[in-house]
Amino acid sequence: MSNCSPPPVLLRLALWAGVGYFCCMAGAHFCGLKYPLLFIYYDIPFYAYQDKIISFAVVAYVCLFANAALHRSGVPAAITALGFTVLGLSAVNVSDALGSVLDGRSTLAYWLQTGLIATYFATLIGLYAVGERTSRDSR
Hints:
Blueprint: H1 9-31, H2 48-70, H3 75-93, H4 96-102, H5 108-137
Helix pairs in contact: 1-2, 1-5, 2-3, 3-5
């Protein structure tokens, strides 16, 4: 299988699901729709201009995941970006800055969302590994 060929079907579908998710996330941030999963820190104060910036930045994820769904060579970059996202969200979840706006409220909802994204990350790694192994075995 060529490095420019699309990834295996299950991985491709998972990546397209990511494209859909990130499109919805970008739209939610652009419109200020504070729904959990689309807006991780949905119940803390925010500035509308920051969310517009986030919406444009999330479009980079849309492009990255669409490219990965079309070209197997793009998959490692998409997975790496998502891994750093999980690390970044985890760092925010334990930060004093977040704690200062929560006024003693729990971070459980943020950890659950971070966990779901981490599960998606792990799923992509697993599907990629299976695809690579299958590709090697068929040579």
